[in-house]
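The methods section describes the discrete structure representation at length, but only in general terms. What matters is that the chain and its backbone geometry are given together, residue for residue. For illustration, here is how one protein appears when written out as sequence plus structure tokens:
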Amino acid sequence: YLPEVALYYPFMKGRELLELYGGLHGLNKHELRRRIPELFEKLGLKGKEEVLLREYSKGMQQRLGIAQAIIADPELLILDELSSGLDPVGRYDLRQVLLDLKQRGRTIFFSSHELTEVENLCDRVIIIHKGRIVTEAPVTELLKPINVFEIVFSVPAGAEVPNSLRQFELERSEEAFRSVIRDVNGYAQAVTDLVSAGAKIISTSSQTQSLEDFFINLVQHATLEERQQ
């Protein structure tokens, strides 16, 4: 477990702190001698083993806190605002450590306002607004409906627009049609059908919203509903 704000003994050295926490987990001296240098290197703290914790920056203390949380290679990790105080390099190092744990079958449960990290690391997301769960789903399912594709095309004189495109948003101008599709499979099928029908594809574009965009839209919708009640 790693809380958002972890306070450590300022007159201990980094190595000593991990020896303390590792000992509390039941690791013996041989395991600690092997494990501690590995963690200092993985988390970008190599060479800081004998430095007093009062001389650690906030980011260094956060890295050390992550090290104490994983020193015993637990099956479950609970982390609160895990990237707090970390610079971009620290976040990258942390991401690699957590991805390695994930690939080895460990369960990681964390809260975060850094939604890019959530999108990169998580399989499943719970979004909470004002203490209430507003959605819960795998990340892939949340992002699926927010992929938007646009095709601008024209068809030969006297030809009809393929039926597969009529189920999507379709606008017509004097010279061309514009179709908006919110499904990658539908987009692929539409392009195939247009080519088969001899249509001229003038332009295509796509827009993918991030989990952060999805979160903002969801919260704004929830807030609007509250006001209307």
